[in-house]
Amino acid sequence: MSKNIFLHEFRTRLKSVLTWSLGISALILFFFSIFPSFAEQAELTTQLLSKFPPALLEAFGMNRMNLSTILGFLSLVMVFIQLCLAIQASNYGFGLVSIEENELTADFLLSKPVSRARVLTSKLLAAVSSLLVTDLVILLVTFISIILFNGGRTYELRTLNLLLLSMPILQLCFLSVGLVISLLVKRVRSVTPYSLGLAFGAYVLNAFAGVFGDVKLEYITPFKHLDPVYIVGYAAFNSPLVLLNLAISLIALGASYWLYIRRDIPAVS
Amino acid sequence: MNIFFRELKANLKSLLIWCGVMILLIMIAVMKFSAFAGDPSMLAMLDAMPKAMVDAMSLRAFNLTTVSGLFGIMFLYFGLMGGIAAAMWGSDIISKEERDKTVEFSLVLPVSRSRVITFKALAGLVNCIAFVLITWAVSLLAVQKYNPDQAFNQFLALEMEAMFMIELLFLAIGMFLGCAMKQYKRSGSIAVAIILVTYFLSVMAGMDAKLDFLKYFTPFKYFDAGALFHTGKMDGGYLLITATIIVLCIAGAYWIYNKRDLYI
Q1: Where are the alpha helices (DSSP H) in chain A?
Q2: Which of A30, A197, A211 is facing B32, going by the closest CB pair?
Q3: Does residue A233 fall inside a structural domain?
Q4: How far is CA A146 from CA A27, A152, A238, B175, in A?
Q5: Where are the beta strands (DSSP E) in chain B?
Q6: B32–A208 C-beta distance less than 8 A
Q7: Mean pLDDT in runs of 10 for chain A (269 residues)?
Q8: Chain B interface mutation, best of A43, A194, A208, A218, highest count of B Cβ atoms under 10 Å
Q9: B92: closest CA among B2, B167, B179?
Q10: Percent over 90 (pLDDT), chain B
């Protein structure tokens, strides 16, 4: 890893990390401020729903949903946090090397006495650390909001940790998939449409995941792999899907190295 | 006119990708619906859920055992995808000239800046129309085997009109951002921020009665599928808000772009 590249990359992202962290924190605090009044209403629902046949609840994906507890509510909020994180991560993924080509700095960078693999490693590590900083802020804000709004009720710390752990896994997936797509196409002109398309596309495909029973097609979306409702419901990861998700990330990363080392970089003419 | 065709060609790939995602979404929804059509016990359960929960899960109070109910839920995602696509088209179509360093070239052509914007806007408009029409056609095809009745066709037509309004709104906002932002990078990120904030506002507005006022700030709530279904028309007040925002954004775009300094 090259320290200079790492620091430079990290610094250029600092403002973006700050914006995303503050935005997501505001989102969490805002959502949690509705929790106290929301919980009362949801408690009634839970009682009502317990009278329905379990098979029916299963079909709706609602047998595992209890919005009157703080973790059940967090699982609802976590879906939105994941959406934001996915956009941020795919932003960084798509921009990781394509920005150099767009801003015509690629040939400058690659003429330095650093191998391409090292360039990519440093850039990746910088992006991952930026994402982890965001996670750290979210973690802090989540704990603070639970203290503020939970009213002293108990909750399972292990499940909460799993929920929070789902964030970096999801980010890694979008980061690496974004990176590999940016290397597969000839040129990424603008990062935002790509990353919004990837993240929102996956999100919308996931939208029906809980409802209407089982269809295999939805397993292509990373949001399904790390479904917060599942994590809270079973207090565990959906292991096969999480492994699938990690496998996708690793394959995408491997392919990215392979592609980047062989890539034809357009020089300034 | 050359600008118009040039832009259409440049945006074709993006249009095709968005249509692909939309087709996939409709396919998944209709496949799921097949397990579900005409089962009254589902209906009883939905009726028993309180409003906040139904809204939070974006299952509005629809009769989910009919195709109209299915497309009532789908509308939120139609609007969301249409809005994102249009905002991206709008901001990108202006700002890409500066990003690709072609702006000096296109603005020394013997065409006024206003004409450049007009033809770019027209190209964006054609994209939006194509996106709606394809969504419409695929939806109609997908539900053929459930023999949709006349009422469904009318409801779908109304939904598509509403989706088009959302697209127009976001296209105008996107174009305004593309014209007004001095740095081309900023127009994209502000468009993302606007989409995310308005989407989250639309979710929150349904969750708590106290937050109901938020619905005035998010276009995704201007055209509510439930209201469309029950009244059979778009709400006049919201249409007026939409039209006002569109006119203001477009006027602002022309005004600012005509006198601004270019980022080179």
Answers
A1: 3-49, 54-60, 70-102, 106-110, 116-149, 157-184, 191-206, 222-225, 228-234, 239-262
A2: A211
A3: yes
A4: 14, 9, 25, 41
A5: none
A6: yes
A7: 91 94 94 82 69 58 67 87 95 92 86 92 96 96 89 82 94 96 88 90 77 64 87 86 94 96 81
A8: A208
A9: B179
A10: 41
Please list the pLDDT of chain B residue by residue as tens digits (264 residues).
888 999 999 899 899 989 998 998 888 888 877 766 666 666 666 666 555 555 555 455 566 677 887 888 788 889 999 999 999 999 999 988 888 888 888 888 888 999 999 999 999 999 999 999 999 999 999 888 887 888 889 999 999 999 999 999 999 999 999 999 888 888 888 998 999 999 988 888 877 777 778 888 888 888 888 778 878 888 888 999 999 999 999 999 999 999 888 876
Tell me the DSSP string of A83-152. HHHHHHHHHHHHHHHHHHHHTT-HHHHHTSSS-HHHHHHHHHHHHHHHHHHHHHHHHHHHHHHHHHHSTT
Domain that holds residue A40: 3-262
What ipTM does this complex have? 0.85
Q: Cβ distance B239 to B252 under 8 Å?
A: no
Kindly state the DSSP code that residue B182 receives in the 8-state scheme.
S
Interface membership of A52 toward B (CB under 8 Å):
yes
Total domains in chain B come to 1
Asked if A193 and B14 come within 8 Å (Cβ–Cβ), the reply is yes
Closest partner residue to B189 (CB to CB) among A53, A192, A200 is: A192
Closest residue in B to A61 (Cα–Cα): B57
Chain A / chain B CB contacts < 8 angstroms = 116
Question: Is A213 part of the contact surface with chain B (CB cutoff 8 Å)?
Answer: yes
Handedness of CA A162, A165, A170, A172 (dihedral sign): negative
Give the one of B29, B100, B208 whose C-beta lies nearest to A208's C-beta: B29
Closest of B71, B81, B82, B72 to residue B140, by C-alpha: B71
Window 51-70 of B, Cβ < 8 Å to A: 52-53, 56-59
Contact (Cβ atoms closer than 8 angstroms) between residue B73 and residue B46: no
Residue B48 lies in a domain: no
* Closest-approach residue (CA) in chain A for B195: A196
Q: Tell me what the pLDDT averaged over chain A comes to.
A: 86
Residue A269 lies in a domain: no
**B70-113 pLDDT, tens per residue?**
888 788 889 999 999 999 999 999 988 888 888 888 888 888 99
* Residue B25, in any domain of the structure: yes
User: B82 is in which domain, residue-wise?
Assistant: 2-37+71-259
B45 to chain A: closest CA residue:
A52
A27 in contact with B at a CB cutoff of 8 Å?
A: yes
Task: Determine, yes or no, domain membership for B244.
Answer: yes
pTM of the predicted protein model: 0.89
